[in-house]
Specification:
Chain A: It comes from Streptomyces ambofaciens (strain ATCC 23877 / 3486 / DSM 40053 / JCM 4204 / NBRC 12836 / NRRL B-2516). Chain A: It is a multi-pass membrane protein. Chain A: Belongs to the binding-protein-dependent transport system permease family. The structure holds two protein chains of two kinds. The longest helix of chain A has 32 residues. By secondary structure, chain A is mainly α. Chain A is built from 13 helices and no strands. Chain B is an all-alpha fold. The longest helix of chain B is centred in the C-terminal third of the chain and has 36 residues. Chain B is globular. The C terminus of chain B is likely disordered. Chains A and B meet through helix 1, helix 2, helix 4, helix 5 and helix 6 of A and helix 1, helix 4, helix 5, helix 6 and helix 7 of B.
Chain lengths: 315, 277
């Protein structure tokens, strides 16, 4: 194991930030270095480089040297209606996926926390979307949505609900159709996180509330939700970010079509960078995405803190 | 706690609805994979193939270099998982056991790195790897996957370390064992299941990964399974449904099997990481 070989080397602390303690602190630096160096070289470094590229006219396959162009990319972005449209779609998609996903996952987690007979099957099945490659999830739902050979239209026909339609290429139906897939694909993680939160709520509190004659809804409001809230907010914040930045699912389902109706910001930036070779411009998009998502998230989390003052306030 | 029979019935109805929602796309994928072309062309599809066949699987292997792609995926995922765990374990240990500016920064990075759109990372990485002549190479992809899987590897592993009572280490120290002996003979064995779970989880995420592979791998003989799968879906979205379903089904099996094996540990590790930090 690595700690062995690393810790064997003479350990010297590089700086005096840690108070020297007998024993355990020595060698901490050497234990950290094997991971820290790749992180700095291949993650932090490239990120800074990426941000700096946003201020250049970097393009792929060009022979002239890259020029520093200040904020020109950002000025262009301000007027790029296609980008803002994709940004809007990204927000609709992120909220449209995250909210139903949370509600469904909460319901499923509450059910799985009960002593039900089919619980093992539900747990096993709930794992399937999680383990599948996103590309396969996309392909699978294309088969479901397929206008002729798909099961969705066939079910609708059987139920007498019309002849069905081509869900993924309809201007009005494409975004809702991919949102359904997003909800399906991301439910397991959310369910597991909420289930973990539920299993941390003290059972005695539930029983005490039940003895006091509290109904299911009151027990949920006064006992379950307060205990669950930290986990719920954390997973929701993460889901919002992940969904906003998602790529593979929609790439496989619609490639952003029809007519850009499902072109998420990541798909837009990907095309800009790797189809049109506009590295600088795409990097600027990435910067704007980070900045705006951070602002939105700060607002969301500030709301959470304020909400925390009102005890048991679900809405 | 008592639950009325009415409420129970409602719970079972809800559970059943969830089961249908979770299962039906997957069952449809399997059903499609075993259907002969004439059944796929018919307008009224059925759940159970009338005339099940393995032709789709054969055709899938004929149409695309699936074996080659599976091998590439295996190398990339295995390489990334092993390297990530080997370098993350000592750092996770330090993060869990010592509070310092460095470990706080590392924890902060783990959280913040979740928020970055990968496009901001992949453009510079693309340029760097191009200069290193590592574009269109599986080792180049492994490098990217290692760094990409480090945050959650650190997160999970730090959770597992925290689950080991420090008293055990202290007791060993009192007994005269040095830091090293303590780590090797006390902490490591207790950590081993967590390390395996983390490695397998890193393996699955790399096996499933698409975006980096799409950008970095150019030629079919270097591409991983998820990228090859998209070749079945033609440019116009017209696809040979049977082989597409067959290949997609095959690509999922390894991660499903691995996930089934370690599912409890992953959820346990995530809980430990989330609850105790």
């Amino acid at each position: 194991m690595t700690p062995v070989t690393d810790a064997r080397r003479p350990a010297r602390r590089a700086s005096g930030t840690n108070r020297p303690r007998p024993g355990p602190d020595h060698g901490a630096w050497f234990l950290v270095l094997p991971a820290l160096i790749p992180i700095l070289v291949l993650s932090v470094g490239p990120l800074l480089y990426g941000v700096s590229l946003a201020f250049t006219d970097a393009q792929s396959g060009r022979t002239e040297p890259t020029q520093w162009i200040g904020t020109l990319n950002f000025q262009d972005l301000m007027h790029d209606t296609l980008f803002w449209e994709s940004f809007r779609i990204g927000l609709v998609w992120a909220v449209g996926v995250t909210v139903p996903q949370f509600l469904l996952a909460l319901g499923l987690a509450l059910l799985l926390n009960q002593n039900l007979r089919l619980r093992w099957l539900a747990r096993a099945l709930a794992i399937v979307p999680w383990a599948m490659p996103e590309v396969v999830v996309g392909i699978m739902w294309r088969l479901v949505y397929n206008p002729d050979a798909g099961i969705l239209n066939e079910t609708l026909r059987d139920l007498g609900l019309g002849d069905g339609r081509d869900w993924l290429s309809g201007l009005a139906t494409a975004l809702p159709a991919v949102i359904v897939v997003g909800v399906w694909a991301g439910m397991p993680q959310t369910t597991v996180a909420l289930l973990a939160g539920l299993q941390n709520t003290p059972r005695e509190l539930h029983e005490a509330a039940a003895v006091d004659g509290a109904g299911a809804w009151r027990r949920f409001r006064t006992v379950t939700w307060p205990a669950l809230r930290p986990v719920a907010f954390a997973i929701t914040a993460l889901n919002l970010i992940w969904n906003f930045n998602s790529f593979a699912l929609v790439y496989v389902l619609t490639s952003g079509g029809p007519g850009g109706r499902t072109r998420l910001p990541m798909l837009f930036a990907y095309e800009e960078a790797f189809r049109y070779g506009q590295f600088g411009y795409a990097a600027a998009m990435g910067c704007v995405m980070v900045a705006l998502v951070s602002v939105l998230l700060a607002v969301f989390l500030a709301g959470r803190l304020r909400g925390g003052l009102k005890e048991g306030d679900v809405a | 706690m008592r639950t009325s029979t009415g409420a129970r019935a409602g719970q079972y109805a809800a559970l059943l609805a969830y089961l249908v929602f979770l299962a039906f796309p997957f069952l449809w994928l399997i059903s499609t994979a075993f259907k002969p072309p004439q059944e796929l062309a018919g307008l009224h599809p059925t759940w159970i193939p009338r005339d099940p066949t393995l032709d789709n699987f054969r055709q899938a292997f004929d149409e695309q270099p699936l074996l080659r792609a599976a091998l590439n995926s295996l190398v990339a995922a295995l390489g990334a998982a092993l390297i990530a765990v080997v370098i993350a374990t000592p750092m996770a240990y330090v993060m869990a056991r010592h509070r310092s500016r460095l470990t706080r920064a590392a924890t902060g990075w783990v959280v913040v790195s979740q928020a970055f759109p990968f496009v901001l990372l992949i453009i510079p990485l693309f340029l760097v790897l191009k200069n290193l002549r590592l574009i269109n190479s599986v080792p180049g992809l492994v490098m990217v996957y290692v760094v990409w899987s480090l945050p959650f590897a650190l997160w999970m592993l730090a959770g597992y370390v925290r689950a080991v009572p420090p008293e055990l280490e202290e007791a060993a120290a009192v007994d005269g064992a040095g830091r090293l002996r303590t780590l090797v003979s006390v902490t490591a064995p207790l950590l081993a299941p967590g390390i395996v779970a983390t490695a397998l989880f890193a393996f699955i995420t790399a096996w499933n990964e698409f975006f980096f592979a799409l950008v970095l791998l150019k030629t079919p003989e270097k591409q991983t399974l998820p990228v090859i799968l998209t070749h079945f879906v033609g440019a116009e979205g017209v696809a040979d449904l049977g082989p597409l379903a067959a290949a997609a089904f095959l690509a999922t099996l390894p991660s499903l099997v691995v996930f089934a094996l370690i599912q409890r540990r992953i959820t346990g590790g995530m809980m430990a990481g989330a609850v105790k930090s």
